[in-house]
Design goal:
SP0561-like; single chain; mainly alpha
Length: 63
């Protein structure tokens, strides 16, 4: 299960195929240093992305 307090790196460790959803949502920084330290909620705030909608999309893809 993906939560908004997870880092991007930890999300990709669960399933690397989730990268496509992150990129499609506007998060093009998957390889940047911040992907290892800031959580999904923080990254979404920086990029103007609705974190709740993104978490729902990511969890739907894991099902």
């Amino acid at each position: 299960m993906i939560t908004k307090d997870m880092t991007i790196q930890s999300i990709l460790q669960q399933d690397e195929n989730l990268a496509g959803i992150l990129v499609a949502s506007g998060m093009h920084c998957l390889g940047c240093a911040m992907a290892h330290s800031e959580n999904l909620e923080q990254a979404c705030a920086v990029h103007g992305i609705d974190v709740d909608a993104l978490v729902a999309d990511l969890n739907k893809a894991l099902m």
